Amino acid sequence: MAKQLELTRLKLKDDFEFYARNVLTVRSKSGEIKNLLLNKAQRYINDCIEEQRRQTGQVRAIILKGRQQGVSTYVEGRYYWKTTHRNGVRAFILTHEADSTSALFEMVERYHQGAPDFVKPATGASNAKELIFSKLDSGYKVGTAGNKSVGRGTTIQYFHGSEVAYWPNAAEHAKGILQAVPDEQDTEIILESTANGVGNYFYQQWQQAEAGLSPFQAIFVPWYWQDEYRKKAEGFSTTEEEDALIALYGLDMEQLAFRRSKIAELSADGIDGVFAFRQEYPMTAQEAFQVTGGNSLIQPELVVQARKHKELAVGPLIIGVDPARFGDDRTAIVRRKGRSAYYLETFENKSTMEVAGIVHTMISKEKPDQVAIDVGGLGAGVVDRLIELGHEEVVASINFGSAALDPQKFINRRAEMWWLMRDWLDGDAPVMIPDRDDLHTDLCAPLYKYDSNSRRKLESKDDIKKRGYRSTDCADALALTFAEPLARYEIEMIERPVVVDKVAGY
Question: Are both 111 and 209 inside the same structural domain?
């Protein structure tokens, strides 16, 4: 019996999912007290976090979610588990408003009061916002964003930022609090929120993580993973839009009935219910941060379809290269053959010579028909070096700001390339693009309008950044593959057999 108890203790210490369903209790939406059985979203988050911990020894995660998907329930449970199994550690939870602070602390108190005696640590001097586990010299504290000094002046091993997108002075809070978490093994920082537009601290951090430019991993949780987001669908017939959602996401009738009901509920006082639903219950990260206040040239549905489609890479090989311009921009390189765009690569902090060396190697190995390079910023130097290396026949110098090939329709070359890319995505035949969130975000970011001469104009990179988005490096690289007509290559392909592309993997 004693041996079995010891084995159980060890499993409770090492396996959070096992610990949650045997130790932690929660109040359901119906008011029922029951053990915490991780739902699909919580299991996914736990798997992502545990894998990062195994690889790095730390947890640094940023979580984007819809409404009421149990993320705070998971993190509070995880940190109660952590602080009750280690000596001398502190967990700190910071929320966006006082009511949320109280609710989360009540949740932790419920965990503590409901825990079996053989795993429940003794508490010392505790108050309305703090639990102290006296024998362990560990503690669990909550606070509300607003006080600039909150969370400062102490060392924190486990930090949870809740609804970060709604913090006042979020950047200032984060600067102080995150410095309190040492860069050591078995420390954790989890930032989570529903979206609150673009340009704020949470969105900036999400973009950095999504692009691989920070130690944080980006974790997105779609709404349709929640079992309770369903509604009876008797006599339900689908629209064309809903049929597309079935094809893209595998939604069933009860999920579609829930969606339709929520859209109707949200469509009050002139509000666009579909738009509001996408923000509250996103299917993708890009829906959560959808463009407002203008017309996006490329709609997210086109991007989702292309991400999910698989297509043979057949045709002339065109490589688009968008060299980095400034410190936070990336060099992006993508390949395209006909209806298949593939193998997107991004690089940070590369010099002109380094980028030229990367492209030189690609040309030597892959024998592309054309390499289109933006000559703004570093690009001119890259092109010059590639010509020195003997690649003048294949390299095409493209200036985004130069006159369009069809100046009657487009204000400049960049607008023309983006429209051609949009038409490619929205053509009669399906196309494939790399299944990457950063490319998805880039493609959907720019707005468009017409000038006084009815020419098509694409939002500038500077204006995109002013709205809170990062530079659209990945999408610009793909747009470059549409820079010049390739009739001669298409004619040549008539004589060539269809070959499965080894690089693309199809």
Answer: yes
3 state DSSP class of 473: helix
Q: Answer yes or no: is 2 within a domain.
A: no
CATH of the domain at 65: 3.40.50.300
Distance of alpha carbon 257 from alpha carbon 236, whole angstroms: 7
Instruction: Classify residue 227: in a domain, yes or no.
Output: no
8 A C-beta contact, residue 76 and residue 45: no
Contacts of 115 (CB under 8 A, 6+ apart): 23, 24, 84
Is the domain of 434 the same as that of 470? yes
The pLDDT value recorded for residue 150 is 60
| % residues pLDDT > 90 (the chain) | 55
- Same domain assignment for residues 202 and 253: no
Using 50, 70 and 90 to split pLDDT, how confident is the model at 149? low
Report how far apart, in Å, the C-alpha atoms of 22 and of each of 8, 17, 207, 355, 430 are: 10, 9, 37, 54, 49
Residues 219 and 48 sit within 8 Å (Cβ to Cβ):
yes
Q: How far is CA 380 from CA 160, 207, 321, 352, 414, in A?
A: 45, 28, 12, 9, 17
Residue 295 lies in a domain: no
What one-letter code names the amino acid at 287? E
CB-CB contact of 284 with 220 (8 Å): yes
Q: Is 474 helix (H, G, I), strand (E, B) or coil?
A: helix
Question: Is 294 contained in some domain?
Answer: no
pLDDT at residue 491 tops 70: no
Residues 37 and 105 in one domain: yes
pLDDT of residue 432: 96
314-344 residues labelled b (16+ CB within 10 A) or e (exposed) = bbbbbbbbbbbbeeebbbbbbbbbbbbbbbb
- Domain count along the chain: 3
pLDDT digits (tens, 9 = 90+) for 343-401: 999 998 888 999 999 999 999 999 999 999 999 878 899 999 999 999 999 999 999 99
> Quick one: tokens of 398?
């493209």
Cα 26 from Cα 33, distance rounded (Å): 6
Residue 148 confidence (pLDDT) above 80: no
Q: Are 381 and 358 in contact (CB under 8 A)?
A: no
Rounded Cα distance, 300 and 102, in Å: 38
Looking at the structure, do residues 258 and 214 belong to the same domain, yes or no? no
Helix (H) or strand (E) holding 2: helix 2-14
Q: What is the pLDDT of residue 487?
A: 43
Domain that holds residue 188: 12-221
188 & 244 share domain: no
Based on the domain organization, do 273 and 309 belong to the same domain? no
